[in-house]
Amino acid sequence: MSRVGSRPKPSSPDIEARIRNQRRRDTDPEKLLRSALWRRGLRYCVDVNVVGRRRKVDLAFTRSKVAVFVDGCFWHRCPEHGSVPRANRVWWLAKLDANVERNLDSNREPTSAGWLVIRVWEHEDPAKAADRIEGRFVGGDQAAAIVVM
Of 28, 94, 124, 130, whose CA is between 20 and 30 Å from 69? Predict the structure, then answer.
């Protein structure tokens, strides 16, 4: 996996504050999806290491071996909404590319251990994402696969 060089100085105090305050877990999209799933009676674990390494999944249905990642459009290069900052562009391109590479690796490990990996973009409607996740439990095929939503 490629390494990204040391982080450059933020281009403004506003950007520095925004990056410093960026949540790593319990983001609004995560909480909305969790709420939609909970209302349907689906119970899950939050921020869990499912297979050996230090990478954690946002939601885990441990009995069914379903791992859910809720990906932010900026940090994970959403094809619809992803963007690259103009300031420090070269560094950001390397950083975001490394994030995408890490996502692929984070999919491989649970999948090879028999988990179903589901990725949800932050811009998705939580109810529709919950429909797709719930579909994996009600007559859904539990074969290990990656479902990009």
Answer: 94
Mean pLDDT of the chain: 84
- CA-wise closest residue to 148 among 78, 46, 49, 52: 78
Q: How many CB atoms lie within 10 A of CB 40?
A: 15
Assigned domain for 104 exists:
yes
- Residue 116 identity (one-letter amino acid): L
Average pLDDT on 84-97 reads 89
Q: How far apart are CA 27 and CA 58, in angstroms?
A: 10
145 in a structural domain: no
| Structural domain boundaries enclosing 58 | 30-134
pLDDT for 2 equals 56
pTM of whole model > 0.85?
no
Name the residue with higher pLDDT: 142 or 69.
69
Total of domains in the chain: 1
CATH of residue 118's domain is: 3.40.960.10
Sequence-distant (≥ 6) Cβ neighbours of residue 17 within 8 angstroms = none
